[in-house]
Amino acid sequence: xxxxxxxxxxxxxxxxxxxxxxxxxxxxxxxxxxxxxxxxxxxx
Length: 44
Prior knowledge:
Layout: H1 3-8, H2 25-43
Organism: Streptomyces boluensis
InterPro entries: ACC_epsilon
GO molecular function: acetyl-CoA carboxylase activity; propionyl-CoA carboxylase activity
């Protein structure tokens, strides 16, 4: 995405970008924490 597309795109704090690859244990833990926090916020 170039600078023009970024400036025209609506900011969306709900998005998470996932790329292919192998997760380390600490990366998986961080992703799990973010997803659980978002799920708890939606349910609250």
